[in-house]
Amino acid sequence: MIEAIGLTKRYGNTVAVDDLSFTVAPGRVTGFLGPNGAGKSTTMRMILGLDRPTAGRVLIDGQPYAKLDRPLTKVGALLDAKWVHPNRSAHAHLRWLAKSNGLSTQRVDEVLDLVGLTKVAKRRAGGFSLGMSQRLGIAGALLGDPKVLLFDEPVNGLDPEGILWIRHFMQGLAAEGRTVLVSSHLLSEMALTAQDLVVIGRGKLISQSTTEEFVERSTENTVRVRSPHADKLGAMLIDKGFTVREDSDGSLTVSGATSDQIGDIAGSTGVVLHELSPQRGSLEQAFMQLTGDSVEYHTEITTETGK
Amino acid sequence: MTLLAVERIKLFSTRSPWWCMLLALGLTVGITGIIAANWQDSPMPVIGTVFTYTFGLYVIMVMAALAVTTEYRFGTIRSTFQAVPDRVSALVAKAVVVTLLAGLVGEAVGFGSWGLSNLLAKDTSQLALNSANDWRHVAGIGLVYAAGAILAVGVGTLVRQTAGAVSIILVFALVLESVVGLIPKIGDDIQKWMPFTVANKFIYGSPDPGSLPEGAGPPAIGELSPWGSLGYFVGIALAVFVISLVVAKRRDA
Prior knowledge:
Strand content of chain B: under 5%
Number of helices of chain A: 10
Number of helices of chain B: 10
Low-confidence stretches of chain A: 296-307
Helix content of chain B: over 70%
Oligomer: heterodimer
Radius of gyration of chain A: 24 Å
Order of helices and strands of chain B: HHHHHHHHHH
Mean pLDDT of chain A: 88
Shape of chain B: globular
Distance between the termini of chain A: 43 Å
Number of strands of chain A: 13
Mean pLDDT of chain B: 91
Strand content of chain A: 25-35%
Low-confidence stretches of chain B: none
């Protein structure tokens, strides 16, 4: 369980994170979504006590990070896979991390095995590919078998195989009852990985809900209808208060109505239908719409204060 | 103790500390060997075996600064603070490990140089460690290296960049402290209180007057007694280190 309460981070005049409050529940993968520069990484660093919030606080199972005893056994994090000394072996890197929290060398071998790096454990980490570095970072996060896990853009730059591996891995971790927070700027990726979404833009909370709700709410649901009596049907639908748009190929795009309603109307008046298919707007579009608003909103604010 | 083990693993699992230690030993002992082999006409004094100690000091200080700056360079400082949220104890543990190592290297440098001089010098009649002063000349090197390491860890923590930290240390020790003596009127007075100059006084200062041959080396200047000089140098090192702890605790990692 992670709770952020009024979290704010200011760098001079720039507000990176603005009065951000959200909770991350255990047993689910929570996507932390926002465009680049929205303040995701800053928030994650504040969760880990690396950056000091200008205001507000963030609690992990009711305690600030700095108060945690042997923190690696409570919270595991992968913020940047490149945070490894390039001349240190993967094994040595994990060994000092383990030692610092009283974990055994045996545990190091276990996590290396878990992420499939046993063979290259003695090689210098600087020679690792991005995928291997990412696996090493995940091994480090899992070292203390923590109940809370944070991953910052874990699939960035990975090949499809790596993306799939990480996605299943995170879902597996959540299924074990852990709290998993994954940041990303790709809604399509999060829609596949996360059950909950915390969406931010320009450091402000835009929404917190389940992924389903978010997608439901933010994408425009329409129904495509093809009928030889399109004109008649269209007129009836408009009468009922639905919005109807006629497309160039003569088909109708109806918004505000379910396919059931349209089917019923058509059936009751004997209109023949050739097609009746619910359509869903793209996730990217919805996301851009939402976060684009926050960008515009922010611009307005700055021009006002600039006067 | 756990934290000391952590820092030990970190330090010895990369190669640069090993190279630095080898270089420190090789430079000092090697050049002392050349000096000893060419010491003609008079018996070699104990103080003659440690003229090269400063080369090793700079190398060891670079090693100590690197122990911190590479962590910032590669982001592992964040992993460190994540594993040990109490930044002060993490940095103190690092300083302790680096300082102990620097002390050991310093002793190896002192006794290595002295031992090699015993083997190579023509006339070793003055080389026995008879007085407290003789012991200070040789064994004192470890103490100066240790204090230098604390200072360098402090500078490294403050500056966070290898290039910056190393330049500050070297420019200060090699250039600034000599140049400051050129300032008219007050230059000499300032120089007397510069940390590396004072550290010199601890190693070289107050030798048995009879044993110091003409033109045998840099004159030791300073207002303090040799041990007072060491206290001064250690004090400056600790002050810089404590400031760096306060800064590191407050700023974002």
